[in-house]
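Aim 2 progress update. The chain analyzed this quarter is reproduced below.
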Amino acid sequence: MSMERKALILMFIITMLWGVTFPLVHKVVAVYSPVNFVYWRFFIAGLILLPILIIAICQRKIKLLELFYGLAIGVMNSGAFLLQSISLKYIDSSRAAFLTGINVILVPLLLPFFALAKPKKVELVAAVLCLIGIYLLSGANLLKINYGDLYVICSALCIAIGIILVEKASKISHNLLLLTFYQIALTLIVPAILLGKQVII
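Predicted structure tokens:
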């Protein structure tokens, strides 16, 4: 099986799993603090991936630039998951999924601001078609804008910036597994600060 085909299969699986999380998170945040939920979600993930950091330290493969990108991506992840989880306290999962999908349009529009290639016309057309498809599949109703919409739109912006940062980081990283650990573990920073200040949202 070619690498391209494997990548397409993995993208399909990830998209499917991503879609499943919306109704699940919607149920969780109805009874549990979004800050606590995001914190423990990434704390457990960080523990599972901790051997990656230990191996990198033993092999002396720690690079400051990778840590910097990991921190930047982690902060964007914090914003994305916290804001998305909070939004699901106010809006249903189909609406949240549609509005989160706005990131597919934001990514090509934001590329020039990060010294990356300008979006091609075909990319913009594909982004719009993708957004229309998400709207039709989710059955979201945009006739009413409520408080939770702002949270999820800001979440989509964080996701878009995070995707761009991952693209930039992957070009300079010599250890993609370590970069993955950084961005997962450092997502804990913002939830930990909020919990430390006893902010319950």
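The chain has nine helices and no strands. Residues 3-28 form the longest helix (26 residues). These observations will guide the mutagenesis experiments scheduled for the next reporting period.
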